[in-house]
Specification:
This protein has about 400 residues and is mostly helical. The protein has 17 helices and 8 strands. Helix content is about 45%, strand content about 5%. A hairpin with a 2-residue loop joins strand 7 and strand 8.
C-alpha cells in the first residue's frame, strides 16, 4: 500500500467535533450561498481569487472557471489543489485560514453558485450587437431605432438582464413573425452577447421614472413547482425524471448564469415552440423572477447528485493505501486513528474541512516521505465519505457493554 494513499484520510484523527448536519443547500430557505459569500470575504479568499474580474489575481477567477458541479466535486477540487494553493500563499505571505464544517459547507455553496449570477456587460460591445443582430430596425432606445416593436426605454430600471430576456421569450413567436415580415434573420446569442446587449440598452435608455423592476436569487422549491405548472416537464427531464423530447435540464451543461440560460431558451425557441404546438401546449409566459426560480431548481438538482457507495469507499481505503497509517477495528496501521472508533468524521462537510485545516501538516508529511500528493475525484470523495460515515453510524448503534 502506498504512503501517498495514507495521506488521503490522515485528517480524520485531527478534524475536531464533526458537524452532524448535511451540507447547506445553496439557495432558499437556508441560503448557503449568502453565508458563503461572507466566509469568502472574512477568510480573505479574495486576496488570491477574483470573482467575475473583481478580487485578487494570484489564483484563478472562480466565477469564470469550471470549479466543479456538485458539493463533492468542489471539495475534491479544493483537496487536489491544496499543495499549489499552499505554495502560493506562502509566497504571498498569506496565512492559511481555518474553516469550521459549517463555514466550509457555506463556502462551497457560494462557489457552486458563482456562475449563477451574471457578470457585468460591456455597453460598447452591446452597441455593435444591437445593430448587427437587427434589433435597431424594430426597437427604439434612447431616441434611436425603429417603431415596429415597442420602445425599450422602460428597461432603464430593470435590475437584472433576465428581465429583458424574459420579455424576449414571452414575445418570441410574435417577434419571429415580425422579423420574417421585415426580412430580418433571427439572431442567436453566444457567450455573454446577451449580457452585453442588455448592458447597452440599459446604458442608453431614457429614464422615464417609475419603480425599479426587481429579480432576486431564485427559490428552488418555487422553481420545481413552476417546472411542472408551466409544463416544462412534459418535454424536459431533470435528473432523469420527466419528458424525453428535449434535453435533460439537470445536466451539468446547463450550469450557466441566469441570462445565459435565458439566451439558450431564446436560441432554441422555434424548435421548442414547434414541439409544444405538436402536443397542444401553449407557449408559457415567464417573468424574470420565475426564470430565476426555475434555474435555481435546475442548479440544486445536481448539487448532491453523487451519492457515495459504502462498498466503493471501503475498497478505496485499501486501494489508496489509507490503511498503511489508519486502522479499522484494530486492523491496519498504527500511526493514525482507528476509523471505527472515531467520532470526528460524521458529515461530508467536516471531512472536507478537516482536509483543508490540516493540509499544511499533510503537505509536510508528503515531502518528508517523498510521495506525490494523491488526488481524488468527486465520486471518490463521496464514496470515502459514505464509508467513513457508515463506520460512525455502526459504532453508535453498538450496544454499550455492561
Amino acid at each position: 500500500m502506498s504512503a501517498a494513499g495514507g495521506l488521503l484520510v490522515l485528517f480524520a484523527a485531527m478534524v475536531g467535533s464533526a458537524w452532524a448536519q448535511s451540507p447547506t443547500p445553496p439557495f432558499a430557505p437556508e441560503w448557503g450561498t449568502l453565508a458563503g459569500f461572507d466566509v469568502f470575504a472574512k477568510k480573505g479568499c479574495g486576496k488570491c481569487h477574483a470573482l467575475r474580474g473583481f478580487g485578487g489575481g494570484i489564483g484563478p477567477d472562480l466565477g469564470r472557471i469550471e470549479t466543479g458541479k456538485s458539493f463533492f466535486e468542489l471539495g475534491a477540487t479544493m483537496w487536489n489543489h491544496l499543495p499549489r494553493m499552499g505554495e502560493r500563499m506562502r509566497e504571498a505571505r498569506i496565512e492559511r485560514p481555518t474553516l469550521t464544517a459549517r463555514e466550509l459547507s457555506d463556502l462551497i455553496a457560494f462557489l457552486f453558485t458563482a456562475q449563477y449570477y451574471d457578470e457585468l456587460g460591456d455597453p460598447k460591445v452591446g452597441e455593435k450587437l444591437y445593430a448587427e443582430k437587427g434589433c435597431v430596425r424594430c426597437h427604439e432606445v434612447g431616441g434611436t431605432g425603429g417603431s415596429v416593436g415597442p420602445g425599450l426605454d422602460s428597461l432603464k430600471r430593470a435590475n437584472s438582464p433576465v428581465l429583458v430576456t424574459a420579455a424576449m421569450w414571452n414575445h418570441g413567436p410574435q417577434m419571429a413573425e415580425a422579423m420574417k415580415a421585415q426580412g430580418i434573420p433571427r439572431p442567436a446569442f453566444a457567450g455573454k452577447e446577451m449580457i452585453d446587449l442588455v448592458a447597452y440598452i440599459v446604458a442608453v435608455s431614457k429614464d422615464a421614472g417609475g419603480e425599479t423592476a426587481q429579480v432576486i436569487p431564485g427559490t428552488p422549491a418555487r422553481g420545481e413547482k413552476l417546472f411542472g405548472e408551466k409544463r416544462c416537464i412534459v418535454c424536459h427531464a431533470v435528473g432523469g425524471k420527466g419528458g424525453k423530447v428535449g434535453p435533460d435540464l439537470g445536466r451539468r451543461g446547463h450550469h450557466v448564469s441566469l441570462t445565459r440560460f435565458a439566451a439558450l431558451m431564446w436560441n432554441h425557441g422555434p424548435t421548442m415552440w414547434a414541439r409544444m404546438k405538436e402536443r397542444g401546449i401553449d407557449v408559457p409566459r415567464l417573468t424574470g423572477q420565475e426564470m430565476a426560480d426555475i434555474l435555481a431548481y435546475l442548479y440544486t438538482s445536481h448539487y448532491f447528485d453523487q451519492p457515495g457507495s459504502v462498498q466503493r469507499g471501503q475498497q478505496l481505503l485499501s486501494n489508496k493505501g489509507c490503511l498503511t497509517c489508519h486502522s479499522i477495528r484494530g486492523k491496519g496501521g498504527k500511526v493514525a486513528a482507528d476509523f471505527a472508533a472515531s467520532n470526528v468524521v460524521g458529515s461530508p462537510a467536516s471531512i472536507v474541512a478537516g482536509m483543508w485545516n490540516h493540509s499544511a501538516f499533510m503537505e509536510a508529511q508528503a515531502l518528508k516521505q517523498g510521495v506525490a500528493w494523491p488526488t481524488l475525484s468527486g465520486q471518490e470523495l463521496a464514496d470515502v465519505s459514505a464509508y467513513l460515515n457508515s463506520l460512525v453510524r455502526a459504532g453508535r448503534a453498538q450496544p454499550k457493554s455492561r
